[in-house]
Design brief:
It is built from 15 helices and 17 strands. With 420 residues, the protein is an alpha/beta fold. A six-stranded mixed β-sheet has the order 2-1-3-8-7-6, sandwiched between helices. Strands 14-13-15-16-17 form a five-stranded mixed β-sheet, sandwiched between helices. Strands 10-11-9-12 form a four-stranded antiparallel β-sheet. β10 and β11 form a beta hairpin. It is elongated and about 85 Å long. The relative contact order is 0.08. It binds adenosine monophosphate and magnesium ion. The site of magnesium ion has 7 residues, from loops. Magnesium ion binds next to loops.
């Protein structure tokens, strides 16, 4: 089944607002095994909406329409649908009752203007909206194409999708196969390195399909399995998942959307019963923020010091002033002293530090923007690592990469040391 999604709203085509609904709907359709072929966006102009609806309806068997169901003059979706089906708009008593009831629940009388939202193309089905005034419309027209119109307000649209649209799609027998997606997130390899070691997996037409995407230096494998049931789809994925785990094991940080180096570090600390303290300079608390965004972080994370100035590196962490003077704040020696200092002062098993030049200013030929030193202090000693993150990179990228590399390096170093 081929689907199209049409987003209606002048604010969308004028670039004032991003069409987030279409992406959400397309991913939900994909989960049901329905193939979205076309996205379209159009402003609040009746003849343009009608033209596009006709164009999409002639080429797809399902057209999802978002927006333009409000009570104002620029809400034209009902009218456009009626034009496509060549039927009049008539008042739907059940929808009118629902709109009145919604106002009554808010202790208000229904403004006369909202009555128009109960005007639906004749012969169509209203899709109830439990959260707002605009009912959706399910209309069959143009040689058995289904047009499904939903309000633009994202939370109303999503609730209606789950409660009303998906059951109707299933009822009609359009869900022939289930799609299951498995994500595997890696950190520490470049996208092309990963691709180079996975050519056999990413080849077009392979079953299950494997894609690679990169976001902020985290590389994600996306395995897509299909089958008549969810269990079949999982079974199709399993051998490929095993290959990826085997080939990329040490680099894997998580196997779900958003599970990244901070989760992997916390899990590693917890597994080994180790506590962590942070001394952050150029990352300004970013590592602490990412770690504390994970529920249960308190089981391993004690706290941290944002030691941005040299004075605080000395007063809060005990970094010797002469070390700062002779080696500079961005140096292997200072990174090590910061890590050892925070480990000691906060009484942690592991002290992790970051000091670097985030830019855009402050770089020199010897110490360019993007130069970062990491320090790690554990019971078995203090080590450091140098990163060169690229002097052309914006400050936010250098800070984020430094944070991610620091957490990933700490995780790997803890693992290796424990095996010794
Ligand atoms: P409408 O249903 O056209 O009255 O839109 C109601 C609200 O939802 C407005 O704030 C719109 O900007 C917003 N909206 C409409 N379409 C979308 C969309 N495709 N993505 C995100 N927001 C939208
Ligand atoms: Mg609108």
């Amino acid at each position: 089944m081929k689907a199209a999604i049409l987003a209606i709203g002048s604010e969308l085509v004028h670039g004032e607002k991003l069409d987030t609904n279409s992406q959400w709907m397309a991913s939900r359709l994909a989960d049901l095994g329905i193939d979205t072929r076309t996205f379209a966006e159009v402003g609040d102009d009746l003849s343009e909406i009608v033209d596009l609806l006709r164009y999409l309806g002639e080429r797809h068997s399902l057209v999802i329409v978002g927006g333009g169901l409000g009570p104002t003059q620029d809400d034209l979706t009902r009218e456009a649908l009626a034009a496509i089906a060549d039927v009049p708009l008539i008042e739907d008593p059940a929808s009118l009752d629902a709109i009145r009831a919604l106002f009554a629940r808010r202790n208000r009388d229904m403004p006369e203007r909202n009555r128009i939202q109960a005007q639906l193309p004749a012969g169509t089905e209203a899709i109830p909206n439990a959260l707002g005034t605009a009912p959706g419309v399910w209309m069959t027209a143009l040689d058995a194409t289904s047009f499904v119109a939903l309000p633009g307000v994202p939370y109303e649209m999503k609730a209606m999708w789950d409660a009303e649209v998906v059951p109707r799609i299933r009822q009609r027998g359009w869900v022939r196969s289930v799609i299951v997606r498995q994500i595997v997130n890696l950190f520490g390899l470049g996208e092309s390195e990963v691709e180079g070691q996975a050519m056999d997996l990413t080849v077009r037409g392979r079953v299950p399909e494997v894609g690679i995407t990169a976001s902020d230096a985290t590389i994600a494998f996306r395995i897509t399995g299909t089958g008549p049931t969810e269990a079949d789809a999982h079974a199709q994925i399993a051998p490929t998942l095993a290959i990826i785990r085997e080939r990329f094991g040490p680099y894997i940080v998580g196997e779900a959307e958003g599970i990244d180096v901070q989760h992997a570090l916390l899990a590693e600390l917890e597994r080994r019963g180790l506590s962590l303290a942070l001394a952050e300079s150029c990352t300004g608390g970013l590592i602490a923020e990412r770690i504390t965004s994970i529920p249960g972080a308190s089981r391993s994370f004690l706290g941290g010091v944002v030691s941005y100035s040299n004075a605080v590196k000395t007063s809060a962490l005990g970094v010797p002033p002469d070390l700062l003077a002779t080696r500079g704040a961005v140096s292997p020696e200072v990174a090590q002293a910061m890590a050892a200092g925070v480990r000691d002062r906060l009484g942690a098993d592991v002290g992790l530090s970051v000091t670097g030049i985030a830019g855009p200013g402050g770089g020199t030929p010897e110490k360019p923007v993007g130069l970062v030193y990491l320090g790690l202090a554990t019971a078995s000693g203090v080590v450091h690592r140098e990163l060169r993150l690229g002097s052309e990179q914006p400050r936010s990228v250098i800070q984020s990469r430094a944070a991610k590399h620091a957490m990933n390096w700490a995780r790997q170093t803890i693992q290796i040391r424990d095996q010794d």
